[in-house]
Amino acid sequence: MFTHTLFLAAALVSLSASPLHMPLRTCDAFRSVGGPPRISLADKDKGDISKAEWAGVRSIDLHGCVPDARITSLTICIKDCTGKDASAKGPDAKITSEMRTMISNLPAGTPFSVNVKVVDAKGKDWPVPAATFVWKG
Question: What pLDDT is recorded for position 67?
Answer without folding.
Answer: 79
